[in-house]
């Protein structure tokens, strides 16, 4: 049974409107915002009026992700909690990476989803930079003409470049995570 939200629900007012995380309630059939908290207004740059009267949920998604969003919404079971990483678009056009948690709610008789949004843009950008750096290091190590091997503090092989494999005639798959004396 979905959470029911009514006029006299003071706890909802406190937990929703005073929540420091952006939150909204969206009607499933129309994708219209039925309610939005102050944190969402500040974070996304839309006024309360714009959220409730001028835009729908698909407007805050990049065009290339809209079909996936519609498919996800169609697959949602009534009491299913959804946790998903998505890309949202702020009013100024800035893309942000978010992690959403979505719950089914009965909002004044309408079938809706209440969504809590966590902006993970900073962490996602750090992860991308780290992956790029690791890939650059691997590319460099694979391009050198010397055999190159790295070991951890227990003398297990953690890296074995293709030149080491060629010189020693032992494939990388064979040696990774083995100690030197197991070779």
UniProtKB/TrEMBL annotation:
Lineage: superkingdom: Bacteria
InterPro entries attached to this UniProt entry: PAS, PAS-like_dom_sf, PAS_fold
Protein name, per record: PAS domain-containing protein
Domain PAS: 8-80, 133-183
Organism whose genome encodes this protein: Mucilaginibacter lutimaris
Gene3D superfamilies named among the record's database cross-references: PAS domain
Listed Pfam families: PAS (PF00989), PAS_9 (PF13426)
């Amino acid at each position: 049974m979905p959470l029911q939200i009514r006029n006299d629900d003071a706890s909802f007012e406190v937990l929703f409107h005073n929540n420091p995380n952006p939150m909204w309630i969206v009607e499933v059939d129309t994708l219209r915002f039925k309610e939005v908290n102050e944190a969402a207004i500040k974070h996304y740059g839309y006024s309360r009026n714009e959220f409730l009267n001028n835009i729908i949920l698909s407007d805050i998604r990049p065009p290339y992700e809209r079909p996936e969003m519609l498919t996800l919404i169609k697959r949602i079971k009534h009491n299913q909690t959804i946790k998903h990483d998505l890309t949202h678009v702020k009013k100024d056009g800035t893309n942000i990476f978010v992690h959403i948690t979505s719950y089914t709610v009965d909002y004044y008789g309408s079938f809706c989803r209440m969504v809590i949004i966590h902006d993970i843009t900073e962490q996602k950008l750090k992860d991308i930079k780290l992956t790029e750096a690791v890939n650059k290091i691997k590319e460099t190590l694979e391009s050198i003409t010397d055999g190159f091997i790295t070991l951890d503090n227990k003398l297990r092989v953690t890296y074995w470049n293709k030149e080491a494999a060629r010189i020693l005639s032992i494939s990388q798959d064979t040696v990774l995570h083995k100690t030197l004396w197991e070779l």
